[in-house]
Amino acid sequence: MSDKLKVAVLGGTGMVGQRFISILNNHPWFEVTTVAASPRSAGQTYEEAVGGRWKMDEPIPDSVKNLVVKDVTDVKGVSADVDFVLSAVNMSKDEIKHIEEEYAKTETPVVSNNSAHRWTPDVPMIIPEINPQHMDVIEFQKKRLGTTKGFIAVKPNCSIQSYTPALTAWKEYEPYEVVATTYQAISGAGKNFEEWPEMVGNVIPFISGEEEKSEKEPLRIWGKIENGVIVPADDVKITCQCIRIPVLYGHTAAAFVKFKKNPSKEELIEKLEKFSGLPQQLGLPSAPKQFIQYMQEDNRPQVTLDVNYENGMGVSIGRLREDTIYDWKFVGLSHNTLRGAAGGAVECAELLKASGYINKK
Question: Which residues are responsible for catalysis (predicted)?
């Protein structure tokens, strides 16, 4: 019998769900034993339910292909035989909030890619290298839910991953004002070019809800736990524009920063390259060995060359230059469905397991 923890993927037929299944194929700690999706997919094998909509480069894993898809709304049935769930359900925000809490109340930890609980005060929103201490709020959440093992943890929006790690690495220099424009891949909308042909050769200067997330979520990441809830930081102001561009994977950001202190370029680069966190100390399976790389070439980072840095789990920074209005400006790049979505959630689950929050039932 396998010693691996048993995982259910909720919303397993969508793009993020597919990415979960792809990442977890041959994972050393976790094994997908259950896939749940909408009632219309329930009762079919996973291969039948996905049909011609499999979007990953590698084929559907044999270990999952013939699993019979369960109805995601059958909370007790789905959670009965798994140790935790990864959530990528496609529902309204209120429906997601409700169903994720229902799973948690079955004493099944929920690690979610969804945005519904990102602002629930006692739910940690974690980038494992940046704010693992926010796991401490889980004990307060359990009291609210009336659980001993069940809880919800979430990962933040994909768009913030290309600039927030750099700003975190520079915290001692006290960044206080940031202007960022993100150039976001179409897979962030769960689509590819076949499904969205109007994106070929096109740019759309609007992504619903994205700018508010990009401006506010880093503040929660940098916040502190007070009286059982996470209180966002208030010492940094961020304003964003978010633009959809015709690339499949990779979110790029152009950012401008003002600091209270006066770092040199060499000091800023050194902080990036030496930045490390608990995942690196613990040697988590999905953790990049070097979280942030700095690229000296004027034309880097580039999506085609750099998006898969550290298996898509690292962040690439380049073009760090003094600015005439702000202090410094830079360009960042992260993989939106790996670091920014499914991969970030899997690394979060690994951190929770290594910290004793997720165990065999």
Answer: 158 (acyl-thioester intermediate), 251 (proton acceptor)
